[in-house]
From TrEMBL:
It comes from Mesorhizobium opportunistum. Belongs to the bacterial solute-binding protein 5 family. The keyword Transport applies. Keywords: Signal, Transport. It holds the Pfam family SBP_bac_5. InterPro entries: Peptide/Ni-bd, SBP_5, SBP_5_dom, TAT_signal. Its main location: periplasm. This is ABC transporter substrate-binding protein. It is found in: Periplasm.
Length: 536
């Protein structure tokens, strides 16, 4: 038997180290290694190397203080009702999910030990043993059933009620086994349950003020709209974690004030700062910037059912008029990746990298505008600070139009009321979409014929059928092929122009270690407190 490993890379080493940090058992790790092509002997070598690497890195102890950008008196500790980033950060520190997404966008197990199905419709979930809530209660299948059913109760007001509606049956087979039945097959269920709202709470919970979860931290203080303080869960089921003794999270809405709080030492971490505030960090010693691109984007929406979007040549002209490289360089100050007019970002394992962005070509744009009969006419374009960088994007597109005689009337409207009064309504306007973990969620939400947020009113029977086919298949290669084709359809046929995937930038003390990217968003998908440590 050979000691060599076929196609084993540093990324595979990182995957094993990450699994160790998340509490994977030796049996699970060896299974992962064998699946990756490692022989038993070689697997033991890799496992030893990874274990040593992990053990040598983190440092336990210390108090960590971070500031986000948003908060409200409606802040909540109920995962089902979480709506702001501050809610997600708190919930990730207090609770666990059945599954989670790693930095590569791959679905991994958390409270679930396994997630199996033969038909993508009936799923059997085996739970980890030895997991307890903060109050000492052992985790059982009843807790999972209760947590899932809450999303279907209108009185709860779950933010993922529509996503959860596909789950039609729940059964506690035994204390550590749950059966979940779907209305229709969906191979993405394990990934869907990695969303922040699907945290597991104790059976029968109605009072969430204590934040009683199975997570890495125990709640000490919660002041909605102000701050939260949590301390290390000494009985946490993941061995050796968390590293921090305590974690305090506050909100400072002003970017410059948030960075100044970091520079003055009041906080260790300033989340999601804009390019202008980045200059305050400059060459300051002892501070760093962390850039991640996880799928957030601002798009230009042209409604296909209204004038001028009902003229196909106008839409084609606009796609050639958008200088994607310039938008990344100027509007986003380099903090983004060029987009190819579809919502599945490079952070997603189903991203179609073969689909090239439309080239900036003013001559072709002018040809299509002339063909549409709109060249020289004034076309209103609605932009607002509510949609990140949309005003800067609009000005760049407007200038390109002016060079060829296309008059784009950029109308800047207030942030207040933008999403109610202009988004989805105006003939030509901007939107801003947060990361979603699966192509199916993005397509169902934004591009299906009956999508609630169908920004350009794109309708395609073929697209709808492909979406259902991909959703129900357990063949990952087939799903990737279908999703790749659907991305091409959106790029070529829909009225949404996605010039770039926007990067999130966090500023932090150089003493903060362990920060990684995550496809669910900044701050490690809002779960950073469990995995960070402070350098001694």
């Amino acid at each position: 038997m050979t000691d060599k490993i076929t196609n084993w890379t540093s990324a595979d080493d990182a995957m094993v180290e990450n699994a160790i940090r998340r509490g994977a058992s030796r049996r699970e790790l060896l299974k992962m290694l064998l699946a990756g092509g490692a022989a038993v002997a070689a697997g033991s070598v890799v496992l030893g190397r990874a274990t040593n690497a992990v053990a040598a890195t983190p440092v336990s102890g210390g108090s960590f203080k971070a500031a986000g950008w948003s908060s409200s008196t409606a802040d909540t500790l109920d995962p089902a009702k979480a709506s702001l980033s501050t809610d997600y950060v708190r919930c990730c520190s207090l609770y666990n999910r059945l599954t989670f997404l790693d930095k590569e966008g791959v679905t991994q197990m958390e409270l679930a030990e396994s997630f199996d199905s033969k038909d993508a419709k009936t799923w059997t979930v085996k739970l980890r043993k030895g997991v307890t809530f903060h109050d000492g209660k052992a985790l059982t299948a009843d807790d999972v059933v209760f947590s899932m059913k809450r999303h279907l109760d209108p009185a709860v007001g779950s933010k993922v009620a529509k996503i959860a509606a596909q789950m039609t049956g729940f059964k506690a087979v035994d204390k550590s086994t749950v059966e979940i039945t779907l209305a229709d097959p969906n191979a993405d269920l394990p990934t869907i349950l990695a969303l922040h709202h699907f945290m597991i709470v104790a059976d029968g919970t109605t009072d969430f003020s204590k934040g009683n979860g199975t997570g890495a931290f125990v709640l000490q203080t919660f002041e909605p709209g102000v701050r939260s303080v949590v301390t290390k869960n000494k009985n946490y089921w993941k061995s050796g974690q968390p590293y921090l003794d305590s974690f305090e999270f506050i909100a400072i809405s002003d970017d410059s004030a948030r960075v100044n709080a970091l520079l003055s030492g009041d906080i260790n971490f300033a989340a999601s700062i804009n390019p202008r505030a980045m200059k305050l960090i400059g060459g300051q010693q002892g501070f760093e910037l962390s850039k991640t691109t996880s799928g957030n984007y601002t798009d230009l929406n042209i409604r296909l059912d209204m004038d001028p979007g009902n003229k196909a040549d106008f839409v084609a002209g606009m796609k050639y008029l958008v200088n994607r490289e310039q938008i990344v360089k100027s509007a986003l100050r380099g903090l983004g990746e060029v987009g190819n007019d579809q919502p599945v970002s490079p952070a997603n394992i189903f991203h179609n990298a073969d689909l090239k962005p439309k080239a900036f070509d003013p001559d072709k744009a002018k040809f299509h505008f002339q063909k549409s009969g709109l060249l020289g006419q004034s076309i209103p374009v609605i932009a607002s600070d509510a949609a990140t960088s949309s005003i800067d994007m609009a000005v760049i597109i407007q200038a390109a139009g002016a060079d060829i005689g296309m008059k784009l009337d950029v109308q800047r409207v207030p942030s207040d009321g933008y999403w109610d009064n202009y988004w989805l309504k105006a003939p030509v306007h901007f939107g801003n979409i947060n990361p979603r973990p699966t192509p199916d969620i993005l397509f169902s939400l934004l591009y299906a014929s009956n999508a609630p947020w169908n920004e350009s009113q794109y309708k395609s029977e073929k697209f709808d059928k492909l979406m259902i086919e991909a959703r129900g298949s357990l063949d990952q290669a087939k799903r990737k092929e279908i999703y790749g084709h659907m991305q091409t359809m959106v790029s070529e046929e829909a009225g949404t122009i996605i010039p770039a995937y926007i990067s999130n930038v966090d500023a932090l003390s150089s003493k903060v270690k362990g920060l990684e990217a995550n496809p669910l968003g900044g701050m490690m998908g809002y779960a950073m407190a469990e995995y960070l440590w402070l350098e001694a």
